[in-house]
Design goal:
4-stranded antiparallel sheet, 3-stranded antiparallel sheet, disordered N terminus
Length: 133
């Protein structure tokens, strides 16, 4: 990702790799420097802005969503692992049999959801929508 500060504004051009990439140069630029970032895969697949929290939501093709400060140098604030419940016929039958034998609710198992990209933050930052590649 490149960050350029021009006058009082700020322009950032996302790239999919944490390396020097060409960037569009606004006129009267004062700073142009690559921003090194760290993600689980070392890549950047999706980027969305959460205005309510003033942070960027970043995906990298893994099962992680990263939350970065929206101001330069875009420091990571936290991350979240994304999972889905595992629902197979054999798992459901085993869970039902266990629940019937123990009178306890079946435990759910979860699997990581990989290849998250194309992010959008909605509902005041309460939800992130994503595509799975």
């Amino acid at each position: 990702m490149h960050h350029t500060q021009a006058n009082q504004g700020c322009v950032s051009q996302p790239t999919n790799q944490p390396t020097n990439q060409p960037t569009n140069q606004p006129t009267n630029q004062s700073i142009n420097q690559p921003i090194r970032f760290s993600t689980a895969t070392g890549q950047g697949w999706g980027l969305a802005y959460d205005a309510s929290a003033r942070e960027l939501v970043v995906s990298d093709g893994s099962d992680h969503l990263f939350f970065w400060a929206a101001a330069f140098p875009f420091a990571e604030k936290r991350f979240l692992r994304v999972t889905l419940p595992v629902t197979t016929a054999s798992a459901a039958a085993a869970a039902a049999a266990t629940a019937a034998a123990t009178a306890a609710p079946p435990a759910e198992s979860f699997a990581p959801l990989w290849y998250i990209n194309e992010l959008e933050v909605i509902n005041g930052g309460r939800f992130a929508l994503a595509n799975v590649w």
